[in-house]
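Hi team,

As requested, here is the filled-out complex form for the zinc ion run. I kept the field names the same as last time so the parser does not choke. Let me know if anything looks off before we queue the next batch.

— J.
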Amino acid sequence: MKNRFYIVVLFLLLSSACTKHPLFSTSKEVTTFQINLNDRVDDLFKVTVFNRKLTAANSYFQFAATAPGTYQTMDMGRFVRSFNAFDDENNPVETRQISTNRWRLLQPEKIARIEYEIAETWDTPVDSNRIYNMCGTSLENDHALINGQAVFGYFEGTQAEEIHVDLKYPAEWLVGTALAQNEAGRYVAQSYDHLVDSPIQLGRMTKASTQISDTKIEVYTYSKTDVVNSAEILAAMEEMLIAAEKFIGDLPVDHYTFLYHFEDASYGAWEHSYSSGYVYQEKEFEKLKESLIKTSAHEFFHIITPLNIHSEIIDNFNFSEPTVSKHLWLYEGTTEWAAQIMLLRGQSRSLDDYFNVLRRKIAIDKLYYRQDYSLTDLAKHSFSSTGARQYGNIYMRGAMVAGLLDILLLDLSDGKKGWQDVLQELTHEYGPSRPFSEETFFQDIADKTYPQVADFFESYVENANPLPLTEYYQKIGITYNEQKEFEDLEKGIGGKDGRFYIAKLPADLPELDLQAGDVFMKINGKEIKRTSMRRLEKKLEKETNGQTYKVEFERNGEVVEVESANPEFKKLVENFVFNYRDLTRNSSFVFELNPAATPRQLKLRQKWLQN
Ligand SMILES: [Zn+2]
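And here is what came back:
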């Protein structure tokens, strides 16, 4: 947790005391935020809060320190540039900033409105904790992006109250949001949480919509130079949406809005209950398509978790102080697994493609992340800098673990019930307003399924034991080899246990001390590793002749050194160096169908493929 408290700033509020304001017709039962988006010159959102009658119980105005699903310290108070309260005769009422995100209202019962300015996050430099663009705000000549926690605050004690939003904006702009409007044209949020959960994108956009069973899907797209439009995105997504419906059973939402923003750089996406926001670099759609669909599938699946399956920590979100749920393995890990496998099960992706997704996830987990950092550690420490560095692994190992849980359940139930089926049951049992218990959830799932599931959670979610990939995938007739043995006789190279050896000696080799089976250990003093091989490769590309190679081999536990400029020897070494990357890639983390699978394994595989 990082909550930094600044020195108290006292606002005397005398400067604007003379401004004359018109009478306001806003309902005084509901707090209404009015934003003037017609004034966009200085990167500041001009917000007026017409509050309902306040009491001593509402003595603070709070800006968000963080927001659900971001696992990031935001401290939105850093972006507030002015903050003034007025009574209904337009006299200033004193307020004091008492910490980064918190303003004290000295006489709340007198306050009729508050005016504040808050800077957009995209163009406002900060020293630390830069807010991800897809979670922030942008205010430009042709568009505005509003993520609720970055524009709105709330009066203490009113987090659960209805809020109205009154937007003033250019007539030619479109407005994309999952929020509904009332008769007066105001956007209605059931609570502050709902407002934060409902981003609003406005501007020069395109719109497309469709119906998937009972769910209305809307797509809004801002594309800086009009390269990408909503109709082509929706057309490309339709297959994914149908696969999602099949995977989920009944979609648990009656409407869903995708908000796409294409500008200068790619940042990612942020999920919400009824919408998701994407910030990507503007490119020809064909170049964006693949990753956009994958990401959209992931974000869309969040309608299952956390929306419908979440703990009480998510249910009653603490905006003033970051609090974490340890069940990130579910919210992000399972979501990522589901987004990938639903495309396979919906037949919109081949099994080979799916195997490649798995391989990539395993490789990234092993190459870039700490192997001793469990998925619950990753959740608990996501707000610390150490945790933040490991966070990305929730999409890698987190997804692999969900896949293993699926296989375990299929195996134990003899093919009757996988993780997909259990998720559908959990969606019905819990739902948007019924959280599960943060503490007992692992045991609760085990009670609903099999006792072995509790051990599984302990080993692979709460602890960081090596994943039993070979053992589990074998249950469904799939062979997994972390390092697959091979012999490539054309190149003369073989591989075993992650090491490479001479598979075939060149015919025309003189009396060098070389034998088939000699394992490459060092080339010109450099160990056989990814980084040194890449450097060597680059070096060799420049020097074409005159090179002598000194290679250390291992033969029966002994080191054998060979140094020679012989062209055949050079060819063998260069064959190895230049193909090292491909040889490593093709022989690492390999999934294959087992041709000798038993009838039971075949049965489980069939269920696994289709569910
Ligand atoms: Zn996610």
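Two things worth flagging: Residues 312-477+601-610 form a domain with the Neutral Protease; domain 2 fold (CATH 1.10.390.10). The CA atoms of residues 149 and 415 lie 44 Å apart.

Thanks,
J.
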